[in-house]
Amino acid sequence: MLEGKKILVTGGTGSMGKVLVRRILAGELGTPEKVIVFSRDEAKQHDMRMAYMHRTVTTDEVIFNNFQQALEFRIGDVRDYRDVCSAVKSADIVINAAALKQVPTCEYFPDQAVLTNCMGAMNIVQAIRENGYPVETVVGISTDKAAKPVNVMGMTKAIQERIFTSANVLNESVRFICVRYGNVLASRGSVIPLFHDQILHGGPVTLTVPEMTRFLLSLEQAVDTVFAALKVAEPGETLVPNAPAATVENIAKALIGDRSIELKVTGIRPGEKMHEIMVSEEECHHTVRRGDYFAIQAMLPELAAKDAGPNALSKEFSSADNVLSLEGTRELLRVNNLLPGMVHLSEGGELLA
């Protein structure tokens, strides 16, 4: 699948991007010729470069032989068409993980969310279409918040999905696909690092609404979804994992354990849903099975799959459908090494490996 390929990962220094790059380099889908990490943050790139530095190699050899390494770093911005062209023209596979993903940030700066989440996707499509770059597959990374979106982050991600899926119509030689999944456990800015930090400082642990539910995936499962899409997704499809869900109250209680720490309910925030939707009621009527995953078919008739199989869902796929018990939530966190005492936090509150 990726044997001898050049893979471009935009936003490759993010939480999911780093795990994705590690597993691509491990050769799970074949040994790639090169993995290109494309992002704006030179400090994160430097840290990632050093993490991959072999002990017998000097720092200067790693930094100044950047373009001779299997793992290559490029400073650039998906918002800038020229930057995108420069990176995309070297790639066989493009995985777009660059995003503004914090809900409050996108609410305060919706124009910025549009530039990164929508215009960034458009730049990738335009670069390939106008220049004829020999890209084989483009994977857009989306979110459950794109299903019936109520906040700017979800709205821009929903548009990103349509930009990529519709690109198949005028780019028949390129496969544009998407993946959509829920909250990624312990990703940067997610609730679990916040709860860990609050517990570390003696509480209280703040809940919006105790009964609120969220889909939960590990970073490894998020990458599994990307790999599955590369293997089985047809042009225009959005692949969705059959993910478990939990209430925020059970997540907090599982993390607190037997500690005497107060739970404080703060109320639902603007732009939040009580329950997230992975596949909407409208989408479920053209959603089929792809192994352990759901595949949402493209809406455009030009991309309608022949003999795609029967519908896999009769209703929307909501985080309220199959909610883990407290014990189930605790076990999910335990197997992902996320219970207190099993993880370490950086000064910024990010989980460290």
Which labels suit this protein?
disordered C terminus; Rossmann fold; 353 residues; alpha/beta; nine-stranded mixed beta sheet; 35% helix; three-stranded mixed beta sheet
Description:
This protein has a domain at 6-182 and 217-242 and 277-316: Rossmann fold, CATH 3.40.50.720. The chain has helices spanning 15-25, 42-51, 59-64, 81-88, 103-108, 110-131, 152-170, 191-200, 219-232, 248-256, 326-335, and strands spanning 6-10, 34-39, 71-75, 93-96, 137-143, 175-181, 183-184, 205-207, 213-217, 238-241, 245-247, 263-265, 277-279, 287-290, 293-296, 317-318, 344-345, 351-352. The chain is 35% helix and 20% strand. Helix 6 (110-131) runs parallel beside helix 7 (152-170). It has 353 residues and is of the alpha/beta class. The strands form five sheets. Strands 3-2-1-4-5-6-10-15-14 form a nine-stranded mixed β-sheet, sandwiched between helices. The chain has a three-stranded mixed β-sheet with strand order 7-9-11. Strands 8-12 form a two-stranded parallel sheet. A hairpin with a 5-residue loop joins strand 17 and strand 18. The two termini are 28 Å apart.
Strand % is: 15-25%
CATH hierarchy, class of the domain at 6-182 and 217-242 and 277-316: Alpha Beta
**What would CATH call the architecture of the domain at 6-182 and 217-242 and 277-316?**
3-Layer(aba) Sandwich
Question: What is the end-to-end distance?
Answer: 28 Å
Q: Low-confidence parts, pLDDT < 50 over ≥5 residues?
A: 343-353
The structural class is alpha/beta
- CATH topology of the domain at 6-182 and 217-242 and 277-316, anyone? Rossmann fold
The H/E string reads EHEHHEHEHHEHEEHEEHEEHEEEEEHEE
| Outline type | globular
Number of strands: 18
Percent range of helical residues: 25-40%
In round numbers, the mean pLDDT is: 90
Q: Provide the gyration radius in Å.
A: 20 Å
Looking at CATH, the homologous superfamily of the domain at 6-182 and 217-242 and 277-316 is NAD(P)-binding Rossmann-like Domain
For the biggest β-sheet, the strand order reads: 3-2-1-4-5-6-10-15-14
Oligomer: single chain
